[in-house]
């Protein structure tokens, strides 16, 4: 006997979730509705609808109210249901290696604001969470940081008391707590710390992967369902979005493009491997190669300035890096067939000097019949990307957080 | 304003689909139910339920019947609804390069049977469809071919008049009709031909990708949601199953592992590229390399026999092929993080002589923290895999075919 393939949650759970999403969607679309109106729009029976609504009201996603006396006609006042204007705020926090980035949206998914603060790399989680809380507190009063994500500033208020969830990006793999990246703090205590501080469910994922999700939802690849995102920074990492959803892989090890071998006889990599893409395409590797060729640049900005002014050694280094990156991405393209490749991170600022050799290598190694279809684009969300991805995670994976735990969700006790 | 990411079909279509799946699931689980019983189990309102049931009865998926007079108590007889025992048969057909494979299951997803027939490579589609129809006609009378998929033979009947759908595997990419694989016939006319012959909806996909789905549903990786399948045969191809679903990529170009570059200075490949994995790991490439080393083998069976008997030249060839395959698969593993790698095709019969160097290369190139988690397994469904994958496609993607067209579905006019 052949059985249907089972999905992780049962059909009844999925059915209830679908009913709830339907009710929330109708309230979002139509504004306040009575139970009778909800029933006729949703097709749900009275019993089921009352049960679903009760759960949503109890969870704080929906509020019930009666219109003021003067607008009532006669008989019992009809209760109207609406989305809780205070319940839908979601925030994203990106705990990068040397900075905290935060973003917040309200129930209508309107941006309240974004903010960032750089810090030393040796801060504890408590110190980093302090920074995040302070940045979030500032969002209600000023939203001038919105400009950093290319959106018009909005006037808004952020009530930390009424948050519905937090999506959090961290450095390193998140499904494997015992083996976090050498640069990263252990994340074991972080979800509990955040839960204690903010009192809401916390969803955690790798911050580079969250940037991939954000670019696919609101950024450079908002028109594509299948997206390959690569970040060229101090580390080299990335993420895949498949059919509009973040791809994680069986053990959360998806998107590790920086650890694909580019030269089997190459340099040892911090991951323990040899000749990984990160050993030739990270900021440090690029600077080292440039200096070996006689170039002088104290940091990546100086290198990029030299490249932009046509410095031959810098251009040669970018040519080599672009080719290596393109060769690795071509292998991934043949495997997963993305529609758009988004390149982010500081090195992406090199522009055509990097992307031309990159596209040349793609052209040489992506199978001919797919070559003309892959688009290479520059990331558009900048350093706010991962925090925005945290919000996207909350919006996509937990419209009903209190009910449907996620793999790495910490719920309010 | 940030919007929810839109899925390809609207929320109301999805809601209806969910309601229909719920009704079908309840009938599958409980057997015949009255409308009242369906209403109480499903939570749907009377109006919605009657509408959903009417659509299912009209589409032939559900039949309504009244119990015989003697079991009625009083009043109007209560109509019971049940799955149409004649409506749920699904068949899978694999049009391989030189053979047709068919499989069929009934409404309860019980195997009715499988059958195969080899043919010359220059047959037309009409001739191939004739073979498929003949093989399918034989399934009702004999199911001895079941043994070929490792399942106990079942007694069954296949009523071609009552098919609900056909899932069909073909050689080459399917979302790009103008650019089919050099070995393949154009598939442009095939869906129409099958629809005319069998009078039911046809779902088409690449046959190697269907084998991947079948291995993930019923085969070597039935316990894993994220599966990488590689077939080493006359061509080298594969498929990815992500979270239990077949991964297609933005333009249907997913799983082309055979065209990942393994040697930039290598031989030209039929795809137009250079040094693709297929140029070193296809049956022809392996035989050619073996013969260059002085080995004598007229075909792959003779080569495998030589390797099994310890022939040093054959072992050296397999060592090299296994290393190249493992190196390419390691790159894919770092990108997509599968839980299980399934190796199929004739070359997989070489066993440890192939998989040991393959696993060695995986160990050298998969990121250290993921290495111990990836399992390499031999495909278990053999040559019936792709036809079974056609059935899996029907069961997974079109429980309600007449209502929800698929990208490459041809519906009954």
Note down, in words, how this protein is organized.
- The structure is a homodimer of 413-residue chains.
- Chain A has 413 residues and is of the alpha/beta class.
- The first copy, chain A, has three domains: 73 residues, Orthogonal Bundle (Arc Repressor Mutant, subunit A); 150 residues, ATPase, nucleotide binding domain (Nucleotidyltransferase, domain 5); 159 residues, 2-Layer Sandwich (Nucleotidyltransferase, domain 5), CATH 3.30.420.
- Chain A contains 13 helices and 14 strands.
- In chain A, a hairpin with a 3-residue loop joins β4 and β5.
- In chain A, α6 crosses α13 and α9 packs across α10.
- At the A-B interface, α1, α3, α10, α12 and α13 of A face α1, α3, α10, α12 and α13 of B.
Key phrases:
disordered C terminus; homodimer; 413 residues; 13 helices; 14 strands; Arc Repressor Mutant, subunit A; five-stranded mixed β-sheet; 3 domains; Nucleotidyltransferase, domain 5; alpha/beta
Helix-strand blueprint:
The structure is a homodimer of 413-residue chains.
Chain A: H1 11-30, E1 33-34, H2 35-42, H3 46-59, E2 62-65, E3 80-83, E4 89-95, E5 99-105, E6 111-118, H4 125-139, E7 163-170, H5 190-198, E8 202-206, H6 207-217, E9 227-232, E10 236-242, E11 245-246, H7 278-281, H8 283-292, H9 300-308, H10 312-336, E12 340-344, H11 352-365, H12 368-371, E13 375-378, H13 385-397, E14 409-410
Parallel strand pairs in A: 4-7, 7-8, 9-12, 12-13
Antiparallel strand pairs in A: 1-3, 2-3, 4-5, 5-6, 8-14, 9-10, 10-11
Question: Distance between termini of chain A?
Answer: 43 Å
**CATH overall fold name of the largest domain in chain A:** Nucleotidyltransferase, domain 5
The side-by-side strand order for the widest beta sheet of chain A comes to 6-5-4-7-8-14
Average pLDDT reading of chain A: 81
Give the helix tally of chain A.
Answer: 13
Tally of DSSP β-strands of chain A: 14
Beta-strand residue fraction of chain A: 15-25%
